[in-house]
């Protein structure tokens, strides 16, 4: 007899615990609604000289680059003849682009940092014991620094 | 009472998260792997693969080969022996850790610098190592290690060029004994080493290591030289036994393995005493 009275009681208690003002049209709040974190730049452009241009991953056009511009995955940077620029990665390693060069910033999920499609780059790691840099070209991949060797 | 138990059980199962779940991503830049592997108690990476440990061993071996013969190198050699032993026993995480320690000993902090050049149609890549620890170049599933001053040219779709063959030492013959008069400083020479040409090589690295100095003599440091020619007139050296090797270096193919070692000995020519006797001089 008593057992039959418990389910309605539990239902009432459950209703009482629901947040007030929640209508059927509203989606429940949860992790799915959390705002996406802003994209983290993989590198920055520095020491620009001459005609240096950038093409964002989502853009179709090239535009003039400027100092301290953040670089994200799949962005491309090109230098005209006689121009130069420095790509400084988050870990401090740097890639100096000579004139008439074209490079792309690699996706972080790939085991590389920068793709050189044309031209000459000089890469420097000030602390290779703790830094790493991986440069990919159409023919080869160059890995420097200690960490990346053991990943 | 029964109702309270039911209620608490139901409430306990209906846990509502109070904060959005955070999906952790491995940060490539932020992962302090070296710090972890050089700590006093290394993490035993269960997933360490043989090829990862092998690559670490290769890097450390290359660094060991290029290192001067000093206390740091000897300490690194001990770590490398441990690393090789672990590798043979398939303890890849331990092998990795020991190889890493050896590498760290041989590579005190100094900047690393290299150049990558891609021609206009993207078909050819030239990598040149300028300074600092070696870098690796991978193409078509083959890997080459470049040390300071070395470069390699890779054509798209082709494998890395094979390294040049080791030079063949010519003179002096193995275990040759030079009997020479020492200078006032007790040094002897000249001794000229020579070797056969290697196709594609533009320079040769020669190393002469003392094996056994005469009793009471000062220990002698190894002497090294990079030669464009196929011979080297050694600087004057103290008496003793020496071992030498030569390595070929090609701008396109990289460096060979060292030649088979050869040995020579420098011995002091016995003094010739001329004693004046009644009827002239007596030797």
Fraction of helical residues of chain B: 10-25%
What count of domains describes the coordinates of chain B? 3
Task: Supply Rg of chain A.
Answer: 26 Å
Task: Provide the CATH topology of the largest domain in chain B.
Answer: Immunoglobulin-like
| Backbone shape of chain A | globular
Largest sheet report of chain A: 11 strands, mixed
Highest CATH level, the class of the largest domain in chain B: Mainly Beta
Helix content of chain A: under 10%
Number of strands of chain A: 11
Largest interface: A-B, 45 and 58 residues
Instruction: Tell me which CATH architecture of the largest domain in chain B applies here.
Output: Sandwich
Give the biggest beta sheet of chain B: 6 strands, mixed
Weakly predicted, low-confidence segments of chain B: 1-46
Quick rundown:
The complex is a heterodimer of chains A (151) and B (283). Helix content of chain A is 8%, strand content 37%.
Q: What does this protein structure show overall?
A:
The complex is a heterodimer of chains A (151) and B (283). Chain A is mainly beta. Chain A has one domain (43-150). Chain A is 8% helix and 37% strand. Chain A has 1 helix and 11 strands, in the order αβββββββββββ. The longest helix of chain A is centred in the N-terminal third of the chain and has 12 residues, at 6-17. Mean pLDDT of chain A is 82; it is low at 21-28. Chain B is of the alpha+beta class and 283 residues long. Chain B is built from 5 helices and 18 strands. Chain B has helices at residues 2-13, 33-37, 50-66, 71-88, 92-106; strands at 112-118, 124-131, 135-139, 142-146, 151-155, 169-171, 176-180, 187-188, 192-195, 203-213, 223-227, 231-233, 237-238, 240-250, 254-255, 262-268, 275-277, 280-282. In chain B, helix 3 packs antiparallel against helix 4 (71-88), helix 3 packs parallel to helix 5 and helix 4 runs antiparallel to helix 5 (92-106). At the A-B interface, helix 1, strand 9 and strand 11 of A face helix 1, helix 2, helix 3, helix 5 and strand 1 of B. Chain A: It comes from Corallococcus llansteffanensis. Chain A: Residues 1-24 form the signal peptide. Chain A: Keywords: Signal.
